[in-house]
UniProtKB/TrEMBL annotation:
Gene Ontology BP terms: L-glutamate catabolic process
Annotated site residues (Important for catalysis) in this chain: D131
Binding annotation for NAD(+): T170
Molecular-function GO terms, alphabetical: glutamate dehydrogenase (NAD+) activity; nucleotide binding
Pfam family, one: ELFV_dehydrog_N
Native species: Solicola gregarius
Name of the protein in question: Glutamate dehydrogenase
Top-level taxon in the UniProt lineage: Bacteria
Length: 404
């Protein structure tokens, strides 16, 4: 039985319209495959999007959100295609998502239902990973449900995985990107004032590394609110509060403000590290930052990027700044069936080297050709994927504009 659908239209019409939209969204790069799944008993609804596998098996995290859409997952899968190519590692783009509240008490049942529903695709065509709303213990549930150690990456260390959110690999890379970009534009990171939207896995690790590098974190936020202190937030204290109270750490810290305040404070470097589409034209026009480093996926859009570029602000694109997670994921993919765990130092060393090489290349190309950093970085990734498609005989038409 199909589940009840909203609105006055008959259910089959709504399904038909949704299918048409998905087909219309397919372009010369992908997606190659979109698998929507549901389970009546648990109410689970989710989707897997495999975007482009010309350079290797599709790989990208799995997210859980109460507002998830197929389009959102498809956009994120596309970003993964460019991200793997930009960092020059041999996987393709993919992403999966579950529509639901990650703090609901029946989360485990929903995760198990999602894993079972994708048993045909996992792990031969897709391997679960971590993204917003999922943690290392959720990766362990996927592995358990499919009785396959190779079904997920991002497992806790105690199960032989590389716990990259616990290690903070993505946030570490975001901070390294901020340092490399600051050097490129002639800004001293030491004593720079940084605002970070999102104090989750990425935001916290970025904050900790930025503090190590000498920066001052003047604002940060969770969905529960923002904290702002021009003299510098005590990141160690906020991190301890996050361990105990989760998103409510900002309330416990004191002086909580509305959640979007972190995007509007006076700062030198702005790091959106919460979710997509948060920097619109108005914020791009008003920010006092000289540098924006995208910790989250897709926090800007083409219009706000143009505003930032016109104002002369440097922007480090998501797939350049937050590639720490995928570098760790690449190591974890290799180690899934191995008895020997990956050494975290190998991962941190590769992240630092890749990010510090890519950032000046992309910002230099952007300045030299008067194009946005996204256009510069995408051009590089685009050329690599196109070459792979041509070598495999897939021969895409000449594409002049690349969608992100
Ligand atoms: N975890 C990774 O390795 C990784 C890698 C690459 C990209 N990303 C991207 O980084 C972003 C954050 O991921 P994460 O793993 O840190 O997620 P997370 O769930 O650990 O943390 C997200 C943080 O953002 C906050 N937040 C959510 N909505 C907000 C709002 N409206 N205003 C202010 N704060 C808000 C949450 O409260 C939380 O503090 C996502 O866009 C994700 O796709 C994550």
């Amino acid at each position: 039985m199909p589940r009840p659908v909203n609105g006055d239209r008959p259910p089959d019409q709504e399904v038909r319209e949704a299918m048409t939209d998905m087909l219309a969204a397919m372009d010369e790069w992908g997606p190659e495959k979109v698998v929507c799944v549901s389970d009546q008993r648990t109410g689970m609804r989710g989707v897997l999007v495999i975007d482009n596998t010309a350079r290797g098996m599709g790989k990208g995290g799995t997210r859980m959100s109460a507002t998830l859409t197929v389009e959102e997952v498809a956009r994120l899968a596309r970003t993964m295609t460019w991200k793997w190519a930009a960092v020059d590692l041999f996987h393709g783009g993919a992403k999966a998502g579950i529509l639901g509240d990650p703090s609901a008490p029946d989360k485990e049942d929903v995760l198990r239902a999602f894993a079972r529903a994708l048993a045909n695709e996992v792990p031969s065509e897709y391997v679960f990973g971590l993204d917003m709303g999922l943690t290392e213990s959720d990766a362990a549930i996927f592995v358990d449900e499919l009785r396959d150690r190779g079904a997920a990456v991002g497992l806790p260390r105690a199960l032989g995985g590389v716990p990259y959110d616990q290690l903070g690999v993505t946030g570490f890379g975001v901070a390294e990107a901020a340092d490399a970009a600051a050097q490129t534009v002639g800004l001293a990171l030491k004593d720079s004032r940084v605002a970070i939207q999102g104090f989750g896995a990425v935001g916290q690790a970025a904050a900790e590394r930025l503090v190590e590098l000498g920066a001052t974190i003047v604002a940060t936020s969770t969905a529960a609110g923002a904290v702002h202190d021009a003299g510098g937030i005590d990141i160690a204290r906020l991190a301890a509060l996050r361990t105990e109270f989760g998103d409510d750490c900002v309330r416990e810290y004191g002086g909580v403000q509305p959640a979007d305040a972190a995007l509007r404070v006076d700062c030198d470097i702005l790091v959106p590290a919460a979710r997509e589409d948060v920097i619109d034209d108005a914020i791009a026009a008003a920010t006092t930052a000289r540098l924006v480093v995208e910790g989250a996926n897709l926090p800007t859009n083409p219009s706000s990027r143009a505003v930032l570029h016109k104002r002369g602000l440097a922007l480090v694109p998501d797939f350049i700044a937050n590639c720490g997670g995928i570098i760790a994921a690449a190591h974890s993919m290799d180690a899934r069936y191995s008895a020997i765990p990956v050494d975290p130092d190998t991962i941190f060393t590769m992240i630092s080297a890749k990010v510090r090489a890519n950032v000046p290349t992309v910002l230099g190309e952007s300045a030299a050709r008067d194009i946005t950093p996204h256009e510069a970085a995408t051009g590089l990734a685009h050329a690599r994927v196109r070459t792979a498609m041509e070598l495999r005989g897939q021969r895409p038409a000449d594409v002049t504009e690349v969608r992100l």
